[in-house]
Amino acid sequence: HPRGLAGQAYWWSVSPFHAVIFGGMARNIGRAAERMTRGEAVSGQAGKSVRALLGMLRPRGAGG
Prior knowledge:
- This protein is mainly α.
- It has one domain.
- About 75% of the residues lie in helices and about 0% in strands.
- It contains 2 helices and no strands.
- It is elongated and about 50 Å long.
């Protein structure tokens, strides 16, 4: 959490950019995940992110 006046000023100045960047990123990852569940090929950074997340969720040691 931002501290002091300078911290608050910084936070409020970059907040709109966070919404644009991370909002778009979340949408792209969600779309890639939906395509993957339908069996469609997914490439690009969103596809890599989804595959990485799925790899973290996969149980370890049970056949793979």
